[in-house]
Amino acid sequence: xxxxxxxxxxxxxxxxxxxxxxxxxxxxxxxxxxxxxxxxxxxxxxxxxxxxxxxxxxxxxxxxxxxxxxxxxxxxxxxxxxxxxxxxxxxxxxxxxxxxxxxxxxxxxxxxxxxxxxxxxxxxxxxxxxxxxxxxxxxxxxxxxxxxxxxxxxxxxxxxxxxxxxxxxxxxxxxxxxxxxxxxxxxxxxxxxxxxxxxxxxxxxxxxxxxxxxxxxxxxxxxxxxx
Length: 227
Ligand SMILES: *Cc1c(COP(=O)(O)O)cnc(C)c1O
What we know:
The chain is an alpha/beta fold. It is 41% helix and 18% strand.
């Protein structure tokens, strides 16, 4: 298995999917999901030109942030407890998993304290799966409406993890629902949030996600092998 080859194949696929969807290839960013993977493997991806990496676990992520090249853009894509806000503030290019007002409060408090703005996405769980985090559509809309009170957060879009289906096509309605919700929130709250990013699509369904408007695809096993 070659990380270099995998990345180049995926970038090629991304280009083809964009072409098919009539989109510019630069409109999609590949986030290489490196949870549980060694710094050595991450460096292989880095050597291949990869700069965006996604991590799920705060402690593991922070040690990688400390020890790997400073021009890496780190994405937090795992569930966040509010008491971890002080550790993640200022350390990530984007937090994908803000799914409840109490977490937004905690992150905002840290941002204000540090005098920074934290870019975030609202994680939604439109399929209503009880085993997954995420706001439902009214919860996400309510957070967007309230966003002005979180002056330290920049809400830049939405993220979802659809129910795992064997076929990529099974994800399509979920991706479409996320895109529709993003449009609705963007129209209702044009001043308090930006709905520029859609974080959706993983190893088995990123092509479908791109056809439905993904701007960030989170791909792990197709790059680094099974976990
Ligand atoms: C692990 C993970 C991924 C990557 O999944 P693969 O199927 O390995 O591509 C993407 N998104 C989230 C939120 C994850 O936890």
